[in-house]
Each structure stands twice: as C-alpha cells, then as structure tokens.
Design a protein that fits this description.
single chain, alpha+beta, nine-stranded antiparallel sheet, 23 strands, about 35% helix, about 30% strand
C-alpha cells in the first residue's frame, strides 16, 4: 500500500510539472521556461532573437532614412517651384511698361523667394539637417545679414545607413550637390583660379581650406596653429569658442577633432574690438590644406600665389594654385 501511494504521489508530481510547463507555454507563447529545459533549442532561440534585434534595428534606420529622403524630395520640389516663380518675377521686371512701384513689388517678391529658398536649404527632420553632409547637427546654410552672402556650414561627405549587417549605403544629398555649382576646375599639372569665399573639393569629396581669409570670409585652422593679423597674434580660447588678440575677439565654431573655423571675419561675429582686415595662419606661404572627413588636417598642402588684383579689404580677391597633387574643383559659396 505504501509503494502504491508513493508511486501515485510521484506521478501526480510529474503531471503537475507538465501542467505548469504547458500553462507557461500557452500563456507566454514560449516553448522554454528555462535554458536548461532544452539547451540546443535554447541556443537556437538566442541566435534567432539576436538576428531579429539586428534586423529590427536595420528596419528602423531604413524607415528613418526613407522619411528623410521624402523630406529632401519634397524640399527639392519646392525649390524647383520657387525657381520657376523667380524666373517669372525676373521676366516681369524686364517689362518696360512697369513703373517704380511695380518694380518694388517684384523686388519684395524676389526677396521673399530668396528667404524661402534659404528655409528649404535648412530643412530638418528628426533633429537632423537634411543637406548638411556628414554632420547633420549643424545648420546647413547661414546668411550674413550685413553682406547678403550665404555660407555653407556642411561638407561634401554623405552619412551612411546600414542596410544589412556590415553593409552600408550613402544616404541623402549634400548642400553642395543640391544648391551649389562648379565655378572652375583643374586637373593634375594645371593651375586653378578661385575666389577666397569659394569651397575647394577634390575628386574624393575631401575639402581644402586656405590659410588666409579676408573680411566676411571664414578661416579654418587647427588648434595648434598660430593666427596672425599683421604683427598681432591671436590665440584660441576653446572654452568660450573665440579667437582673441587680448582686446578683440572673434567667434569660432568647433568642427571636429582639433579643427576650428571663424564664423566670419565680420562685425556680426565680433564680441569686442575692431574687425581685422584679414587673418592668416602663420607660415612661409599661403596654402590650401586638406581636411579629412573627421575635420582633421591630413598634413597634405598645396602652395598658392595671391592675385595682384586682390587687396586686404576685398573679400573676393583671387588665388592661383602654383603646385598640384590632386584634382580639385572650386564650388561657389553662393
């Protein structure tokens, strides 16, 4: 009798264990409650769950990129409509029968179209500026209200999106491709003439920056560089993001790594003192220096000669390359 009772209790315990397992499976939809229940099945489950997390993350990134591409497409469509409107307004202004008030109205409309184009160029979604290039946290374009010149704060490098494990594709479009044009180009062995406010891009989409800038221009420099205005040296205050000569201060922005750039050698960006006519990186000659995708100087430089037509107060003075190592393209900054 004792053996029979013990066997019944043992079998009831097994049934209770099976009932708990089946109840867990039915309520959670999972086959295993503990990894020790079936180690091989548990290992396969871990593998599948890991792959699901990876592809779910990829799906989120692709969907986010798709949303940004939709915004970019709609922005470019509006840009086209704005340009069509601009052409129409310009044709109106050529009408000899228009009186001054009519021409003033056309001018106001053109100014509004320009403001709308700048707004579209600075379009953003999910906290990212669509046309800024590799660093989408910075505003793509900025206007100098005093001169009307528009600066591109981005670069020619596109961000990438993962479309599969260890597989990436470029995404979006840069402000250079969307809103700028090639004003001059040269191949190896030739010289290139360009304006001091232009952007220099090579065939690898790497940027080149001059070591001298005039009023209303921007100077890109390394934290270790010595900056001079004639006989006066300027030092970098990386905490307050300014260049200072002890009295005058100019606002700068930190790009990446040890790279900085003046917001503009203009009164709008002077927190104190008098606007200098020009700023230069101390060196034996004016140079173009290559900047990599991370905003760091690569050490590659090209010597230049300054055009005789340029003066320190002329922001559009020209430069000519006198040595050549790579193909470069000059992109207009406006």
């Amino acid at each position: 009798m004792i053996d029979t009772t013990g066997q019944m209790i043992y079998r009831l315990g097994n049934l209770n264990t099976q009932n708990e397992r089946i109840s867990y499976q039915m309520s959670t939809g999972k086959k295993l409650q503990n990894g020790s229940d079936d180690t091989q099945t548990y290992a396969r489950e871990l593998y599948v769950n890991d792959k699901m997390r990876i592809y779910n993350g990829l799906q989120v990134q692709v969907e986010k990129t798709h949303a940004q591409n939709v915004v970019a497409d709609s922005s470019m469509a509006e840009v086209k409509l704005s340009l069509d409107s601009l052409k129409s307004e310009i044709l109106k202004s050529l009408n000899a029968g228009m009186d001054p008030s009519d021409k003033l109205a056309v001018a106001v409309n053109i100014e509004g179209i320009q403001d709308n184009l700048l707004r579209l160029a600075n379009e953003n979604t999910n906290g990212e500026f669509i046309f800024a290039g590799s660093d989408t946290t910075i505003q793509s374009f900025e206007e100098d209200k005093a001169t009307g010149r528009i600066f591109y704060n981005g670069d020619a490098q596109l961000r990438t999106v993962a479309v599969a494990p260890n597989t990436y594709r470029d995404r979006g479009i840069t402000g250079i491709d969307a809103f700028m044009y090639t004003s001059a180009s040269a191949t190896q062995g030739n010289t290139l003439t360009y304006q001091s406010g232009d952007m220099i891009i090579d065939e690898k989409d790497m940027q080149w920056h001059a070591t001298k800038a005039y009023q209303n221009d921007r100077l890109t420099f390394d934290a270790n560089d010595t900056i001079t205005n004639g006989a006066t040296n300027w030092t970098l205050d990386a905490v307050n993001n300014v260049l200072s000569d002890g009295t005058n201060t100019i606002e700068v922005e930190h790009l990446k790594g040890g790279q900085y750039r003046t917001k503009s050698i203009h009164a709008n960006h002077m927190t104190a003192g008098t606007v200098p006519s020009s700023l230069s990186v101390v060196g034996a000659s004016i140079q173009l220096r290559e900047v990599d995708i991370n905003g760091n100087l690569t050490g590659t430089a090209l010597n230049m000669t300054e055009s005789g037509a340029g003066t320190p107060t002329d922001p559009l003075s020209s430069f000519v390359l006198v040595s050549r190592a790579v193909t470069t393209v000059s992109i207009s900054s406006k």
